[in-house]
Amino acid sequence: MVPAEVVAFRAAVILVVEDEVLIRISVCDYLRAAGFTVMEAGNGREALAILKVRADIALVLTDIHMSDGTDGVALIREIRKSYPAIKVITASAYRNTEPVEATVAKPYRLERLLAVIESVLGR
Fold first, then answer.
1. pLDDT tens digit at each of 123 positions of the chain
2. Which of 120, 118, 119 is CA-nearest to residue 10?
3. Taking the alpha carbons of 110, 40, 74, 22 in that order, is the dihedral positive or negative?
4. What is the DSSP letter of 74?
């Protein structure tokens, strides 16, 4: 039997916002294998549409510079304004000036990313 706190932790819904398809697929597959429920968006505009209909998202992992639609900085600002309970991690090669719970510099190892996510979620 799995302890309830482990189930609750792994049940956390993560929204991955990444315009590079191969990176997004790799990260999402890895997080799903680690037991998370994962939603995907290719840009900030798609992410905001998902946030409007999914009240269960606990964490957003976002790139900063994306080629199509709303960039990561605008997304972070909207999350802070409209969804203040959602935790945000940036994963980017670019510097972020917005307040977030954590930043992971690209390129990164998936194991490192998982450790940061676990830390931000308080596990």
1. 334 444 444 579 999 999 999 999 999 999 999 999 999 999 999 999 999 999 999 999 999 988 776 789 999 999 999 999 999 999 988 787 889 999 999 999 999 999 999 999 987
2. 118
3. positive
4. H
Do 66 and 19 meet the contact criterion of CB atoms below 8 Å apart? yes
Residue 109, Cα to own-chain centre: how many angstroms?
Answer: 15
Q: Which uninterrupted H or E stretch holds 23?
A: helix 21-33
Strand ordering across the sheet containing 57-62: 37-41, 13-17, 57-62, 87-92, 102-105
pTM of the predicted structure, to 2 decimals: 0.89
Return the structure tokens found at 122. Answer: 């308080």
Alpha helical stretches, state H, 54-102: 72-82
Q: Are 112 and 34 in contact (CB under 8 A)?
A: no
Domain boundaries, the chain: 4-120
Q: What is the CATH number of domain 4-120?
A: 3.40.50.2300
Q: Could you give the CA distance from residue 60 to residue 50 in angstroms, rounded to a whole number?
A: 11
